[in-house]
Amino acid sequence: MALSDQHEIVASEDIVDDSGHKLWAQGQKVSRSLQEKLQRHKLARPLESALTVEGGIVSDEVVTACLELVESNSMLQRISGSVAARSLLTGFRNTPLPGPFKLLLTSAREGKLASYRHGLHCVAITAGIAARLNVGDDAVQQLLLSSLIHDIGELYIDPGYLHSNTRLTPAEWKQVAVHPRIGQALVRELTSLPAKIGDAVAEHHERLDGSGYPAQKANGEIGKFGRIIGVADTCAAIVMHGADESTYRLRVATRIVPEEFERTVVDAVIKPLLSSPLTPPSMRCEDCLDRIRLIVERLDQSMVAAASLAAHKESRIAADIGGYVVAALKVLSKALTATGAIEALSVEEVKADEELLAEIALVAREVDWRLRNLARNIHLRFHLNHDGKDLALALPLVDTLDSSAR
Questions:
Q1: Same domain, yes or no: 393 and 364
Q2: Using CA atoms, how far apart are residues 139 and 136, in angstroms rounded to an integer?
Q3: What is the span of the domain harbouring residue 170?
Q4: Same domain membership, residue 319 and residue 337
Q5: What are the helix and strand counts (H, E) for the chain?
Q6: What does the pLDDT look like over 229-278, one tens digit per residue?
Q7: What's the predicted TM-score (pTM) here?
Q8: Degrees (nearest 5) of the Cα angle 257, 148, 150?
Q9: Statement to judge: residues 181 and 252 lie in one domain
Q10: Rounded to whole angstroms, how far apart are CA atoms 333 and 331?
Q11: How many angstroms separate the CA atoms of 156 and 356, rounded?
Q12: Burial status of residue 2 (CB atoms within 10 A of its CB: 0-12, 13-18, 19 or more)
């Protein structure tokens, strides 16, 4: 309702309660009095489906904003600055936005929410990927729309979880993990858009190795749109950060676990960036060594805890999840070892190489994120398939995985 203070919002159809009584007539402007009525009645349909915003966001504005981002960001220029990518973006100018999403996106823009700006970055990167993968003209408009609205479900998440100043526990994080499902439900219930757009929204946090959420799909269970937007979403979060080492971070984030993302999609982002020299991360040697040491210790401790869970004889559920975590930890350990992390803790020549230490520390930071994600994944696996049964057996492992320094 706060949006009605900035834009004229009109009922696009009669708003009725679940008994069929009309609360607000079609064409009538929304005001605070409607809000008072809504507090006393249960609606027959979601309110968003019955409202339209005058002067709200349209696709033409989205495209203009995306092109401005491409011009102003050197990384986006290389990813999405080609003639083909710009052409795909330009072709999106006339794509109609469903009324409910026009309302929600306008609300996000006017509220200066980070999710709106993130969505623009995601659209720009998606266009660059689509251009290199030769996604068909008809499909690409649906793909770009999916990319624009992929995080729309976050508008229905308690801001206290989304914008918490403290790191969420795995149990608290479950409140955030439902946003892809909420977004899919919005597509299904409020629009007549094709089902694959809703599927893409639901799948943008899924990973090919089954480590994603909310449904922990894997490989062929994830659609083409979901695979592309998953990479674009990950890259957008790093590009928005704007640090000098962002290109290096992108390479680490998308390749540290090779089985997470489709390689051709990752290459569509990474290869254009290889034309310019990488800026190595900069950190004090002492900080780098501390970070590396802590991650190596935590990996070892987590492996012991996971192996213990995998050997549990009284709970097949716990043993299976323990085995899954052991396999995931082996991949992370291999990735970290390949950087020279172990040598960095003992070999003087390596300890004296500031640039190499900074690169290893950046990989260690990514491993830290993957360990936290594993802790969250354990919670989801127990609740998704087993209604939380035997979760208590895994809590020591969860605590170890999630125990990095705040």
A1: yes
A2: 5
A3: 59-273
A4: yes
A5: 20, 4
A6: 999 999 999 998 876 678 888 988 898 888 999 999 999 999 998 876 66
A7: 0.89
A8: 55
A9: yes
A10: 5
A11: 43
A12: exposed
